[in-house]
């Protein structure tokens, strides 16, 4: 398959890659006020590529850590960012197996 569309006038117009289309859509959604997450690997096959959450929607982001686990600076930043959009966040620390 060619990376170009051929028009009637035989001009070659480059096709947008899926990555470029996704980036364009992310920018559009963020400009409309959504918090956008691009999913790379999930526990659900066939899940869509993007999640777009409007501010203040009822969603919970859960960061899972071992009992003595520590948040990285980036994780702290992301939790604060999510809270600034009105989302609920938690740091869930599991228990050691007995």
How many helices does DSSP assign? 2
**How many β-strand runs?**
6
C-alpha Rg, in Å? 20 Å
Poorly predicted tracts of residues: none
**Average pLDDT reading:** 88
The span between the termini is: 57 Å
Description:
The protein is of the alpha+beta class and 98 residues long. The protein has two domains: 1-54, no CATH class; 55-98, no CATH class. It has helices at residues 18-31, 73-84; strands at 4-6, 12-14, 35-38, 50-53, 60-65, 88-93. The strands form three sheets. It has a two-stranded antiparallel ribbon. It has a two-stranded antiparallel sheet with strand order 3-4. It has a two-stranded parallel ribbon with strand order 5-6. Strand 1 and strand 2 form a beta hairpin. It starts with a strand and ends in a 5-residue tail after the last strand.
Helix and strand topology:
Elements: E1 4-6, E2 12-14, H1 18-31, E3 35-38, E4 50-53, E5 60-65, H2 73-84, E6 88-93
Parallel strand pairs: 5-6
Antiparallel strand pairs: 1-2, 3-4
Features:
two-stranded antiparallel ribbon; alpha+beta; 2 domains; 98 residues; single chain
Summarize the structure.
By secondary structure, this protein is of the alpha+beta class. 27% of the residues lie in helices and 27% in strands. Helix 2 (73-84) links the parallel strand 5 (60-65) and strand 6.
């Amino acid at each position: 398959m060619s990376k170009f569309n051929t028009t009637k006038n035989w001009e070659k117009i480059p096709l947008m890659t899926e990555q470029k289309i996704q980036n364009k859509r992310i920018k559009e959604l963020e400009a409309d006020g959504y918090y956008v997450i691009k999913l790379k690997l999930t526990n659900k096959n066939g899940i869509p590529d993007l999640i777009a959450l409007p501010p203040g929607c009822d969603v919970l982001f859960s960061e899972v850590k071992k009992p003595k686990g520590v948040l990285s600076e980036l994780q702290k930043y992301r939790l604060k960012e999510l809270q600034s959009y009105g989302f609920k966040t938690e740091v869930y620390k599991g228990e050691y197996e007995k």
